[in-house]
Amino acid sequence: MIARLLLGGGLALVMLVAQPARAQQAAEPKVLRYALNAAETGFDPAQLNDLYSRIMTSHIFDGLYEYDYLARPYKIRPNVAEGMPEHSADFRTWTIKIRPSIFFADDPAFKGARRELVAEDFVYSLKRFFDPATKSPIYSTLKDVGMLGVDELRLDALKYKKPFDYDRPVEGLRALDRYTLQLKLAAPRPRLLFTLASGDLFGALAREVVEFYGDKISAHPVGTGPFVLKQWRRSSLMVFERNPAYRERFYDAEPSADDAAGQALLARFKGRRLPMVDRVEVAIIEEDQPRWLSFLNGEFELSWVLPAPFANQAIPHGKLAPNLARRGMQLERVLASDRFMYYWDMKDPVVGGYTPDKVALRRAIGLGTDVGRQVSNVWRGQAVPAQSVVAPYTFGFDAEYKSPNSDHDPVRAKALLDLFGYVDRDGDGWRDLPDGKPLVIRYASSPDARSRSFEEMWKRDLDALGIRLEVKVAKWPEQLKAARAGQLMLWQLGFSSNSPDVQPGLELLYSPSAGGQNFSRFKLARFDAIYEQMQALPDGPERLALLREAQKLTTAYMPIKFLVHRVISDLSQPWLIGYKRPPFSQQFWQWVDVDPSQRP
To answer: Which fold has domain 32-226?
Structure first.
């Protein structure tokens, strides 16, 4: 539009450019908001192994490799690596080139300098898992990789009570030059690529940042990933913003040719600069109802894991409810590569141990656990019974495999208890231990509605067997800390797969991982031998035969009762575009877009 203004007797022409309302909306920050049902524990990859924290760190730190966002079942591709790794014929030497000109987010630790990512950052970051001062819960995972000489650094630090020597070179973990990383292993590791693709745990940190923040490093994550932490209210709210130093990167993926939805997303977003959203806000809302209502009210773009109590209302018969479909909501529904379970502390004097009477007690309670009722009443049909430790989509999973793990047989359970002397000796109506002392099961729980539902199920199942139950309630991070310290008799939790390999799941029962992934502290020489043999074997009949033996051993001793594999349903608002649940990785923030103009 042109306006004429009379200025001091003269005529001036002024061009006025009108701003359309839609352009103003487009300039608004694009914000992705959703809520988790349990709290994070921190942001230092070496100090965590819980899913909730790993979702956050996967968007802050860069791993060498990543999973293609749209490829199904999966495809691993380079992330900060320049190409796929080179390995020796025996899978013992792995060499990875790192792309130059990738920079860490700005931070006071760098004293105003722009800090480039180099191979030495991965050497340092991997060594941190071995530092006794870090107390890494997944130290055993890295130890099992077998990088030559690295564990000796840990043993020297413990033996001589001195700081871990990060500067001492070791054969198994070296930077050959500024951009070349090399790992040399004590034994073949054909699937090491899966470990290298776990960017949520094995992304690169800068040494000067760790040293700058010291024991506060868990609250100051600085990486090369697409987002930076801007605000943290512990167990309440985490706010992330686009990393201004993030490298120039564009949307690309390889969905299957027959994946119409994936192909449509690729056509829509291919070539777009990543990330596409400016800000991510993640709240912690433990109770199902307020979390679900907040989504329905449009306060969240995503309902990450539909709360089971609302499944019949939101997705009757597994389909999006008509009223939600009319609002333009979208459903992403998958069988998760996980296992929900409860474990026994194998060192507990009541339920632990390997003698026939202790095994009988655990197996009897396992037989008394009504998994079918849990699926219908607690999970509302959003789960399938688990047969063993092997999760869907991982090596060795067979939907037709059946084991006694999933049996519900209270009659047989009572017979086992009677046979091994767990009877009511004092006439109070409750079973006692064979020595006459009271038999009491202490169950760890959390203060939320779903946990209370499980408490009711435990009470019902154990009452039917004549066994007393005590419930200890604490927040999820507190129970996790107690579990690592071996302070819980019995705890129920989920474990998600972060790779297509079954090995990380087996680590739940591998004795060197006690206190880390192995909460139950199960220790069986034959199982450990199987685990170690499987680690070095390529996928094939020999490895599968060992896995089947491992499944039978864990079912027989029952240190863990595997309950269900969950069916995950995620709902998204019509203005959240491009969301798909990753099968193994935790990353999705940079792959989605938000269209503010579509909000009501």
So the answer is: Dipeptide-binding Protein; domain 1 (3.90.76)
Q: Which amino acid is at 173?
A: L
DSSP letter assigned to residue 550: H
**Residue 64 phi, psi (nearest 5):** -65, -40
Indicate the pLDDT class of residue 27, thresholds 50, 70 and 90: low
E-assigned strand segments in 145-253: 173-177, 180-184, 227-233, 237-242
Give the model confidence (pLDDT) of 520-569 as tens digits: 999 999 999 999 999 999 999 999 999 999 999 999 999 999 999 999 99
Span 234-245, pLDDT tens digits: 999 999 999 999
Please give the structure tokens belonging to residue 472: 């200890």
C-alpha–C-alpha distance, residues 486 and 482, integer Å: 6
Rounded Cα distance between 126 and 199, Å, is 12
CB atoms within 10 A of CB 528: 16
Distances (CA, A) of 92 to 146, 205, 544: 9, 25, 22
Cα–Cα separations (whole angstroms), residue 400 to 325, 371, 540:
34, 18, 19
At 12, is the pLDDT very low, low, confident or very high (cuts 50, 70, 90)?
A: very low
Task: For residue range 286-320, list pLDDT tens digits in order.
Answer: 999 999 999 999 999 999 999 999 999 999 999 99
CATH superfamily of 338-567: Dipeptide-binding Protein; Domain 3 (3.10.105.10)
DSSP string of 479-538, one letter each residue: HHHHHHTT--SEEEEEEE-SSS-SHHHHGGG-GGGBTTTBTT----HHHHHHHHHHHHSP
Identity of the amino acid at 425: R
For the chain, first and last CA: distance in Å?
31
Ranges of CATH 3.10.105.10 domains, the chain: 338-567
Every domain of the chain with CATH number 3.90.76.10 lies at 32-226
d(CA 202, CA 401): 33
Which residue carries 């656990």 as its tokens? 369
Measured between alpha carbons, how far is residue 543 from residues 67, 295, 457, 508, 547 in Å? 24, 45, 37, 18, 6
Convert the pLDDT of each residue in 407-465 to its tens digit: 999 999 999 999 999 999 999 999 999 999 999 999 999 999 889 999 999 999 999 99
Pick the CATH number of 260-336+569-598 from 3.30.450, 3.40.190, 3.40.50, 3.30.1560: 3.40.190
Q: Which tokens hold the place of 388?
A: 């063993």
The partner residues of 302 in beta bridges, in order of sequence, read 572
**Per residue in 436-448, is it b (16+ CB within 10 Å) or e — as a string?**
eeebbbbbbbbeb
Residue 143 makes CB contacts below 8 A (sequence gap 6+) with 130, 151, 512
* Exposed/middle/buried for residue 278 (C-beta within 10 Å: 0-12, 13-18, 19+): middle
pLDDT on residue 460:
97
Phi, psi of 32 (to 5 degrees): -100, 125
Grouping H, G, I as helix, E, B as strand and the rest as coil, residue 377 is helix
Residues of the chain with CATH 3.40.190: 260-336+569-598
